[in-house]
Amino acid sequence: MKAGIVGLPNVGKSTLFNCLSNAKAQSANFPFCTIEPNIGVVNVPDPRLEKLEELVNPERVLPATVEIVDIAGLVKGASKGEGLGNQFLANIRECNAIIHVLRCFDNDNIVHVDGNVNPIRDKETIDIELQLKDLETVEKRLEKVNRTAKAGIKEAVLEQSLLNQIRDLLLQGKSARTVVAQNQDEADLLEAFQLITTKPVLYVCNVDENSAVNGNAYVDKVRELVKSENAAVLVLAVATEADITELETYEERQMFLEDMGLDEPGVSKLIRAAYRLLNLQTYFTAGVKEVRAWTIHVGDTAPKAAGVIHTDFEKGFIRAEVIAYDDYVQFGSEAKVKEAGKLRVEGKEYIVKDGDVMHFRFNV
User: Which of 22, 183, 230, 268 is most buried, most CB within 10 Å of its CB?
Assistant: First the structure.
């Protein structure tokens, strides 16, 4: 799963990406690797994994990961190919969610592409470009579907109706994510359209150090503006985060954070927020060879969760042996959980819960 960092030039996108790229400095279990110059795989910070490691003492520990993409800065006219527009829009289309960085700090030494700091205007600039690109996609699709809808084909009529609804919203300056699917057919169509503005979004307000804890007037305006979007807002002092990653020891970094009134690095919060934004959750496998966090979607069944390990596990699924994370920690080992009667055997219909510790039985 992939989340793309977007924003106007000079709002702090690359500094944020570089913070993530140096995230190994945050803690031992938070490494990063680069696939391409602007793509990185970042581990999802999860204290539960550390606790399981402590109890099981495995040979290795593998955390859950999220792919983060640093996408080139957008400018007005990107939907028509201005600047790096075409590249930007192609990259963002491949992402599952958007991390939209907004400049919410004053600094005369850092030039703003539009002359002054105004995160509301900046947000609208990017929204308009993405909406214009989606409008182009919708109108092209409508041209094709209108012909089949005239013939009265049920599926085409449904698609036409939904496309017209999206088109009307885009023309009003609203994003396609405000469309609520009325049934599974509409939900499947929305996904098939692959529109940029249907992607879930997390707004990162990049503030100065003094505003890192409580935000500022710029942040208040952003929060008010996005209320109707059902989007999350995260306050982050990106330049300060970059300074923290430069410190040599864990103790120094913790002291710096405490002085700022923060309990953990902001980038850790960002990665967890991106994970939630993608509607993901974690289950664990725990044995002496390996303790591992596996990424699944919220609502996945036990066979689907098993399939993340190997497709054979899903095909030949028999049952899952499940221990709730809290029970594992309370009793301290799998054997003691069994003695206490807290190990459950679940079948194909079981919906996996975040934090479940699982073993799968299968036969292929």
Answer: 268
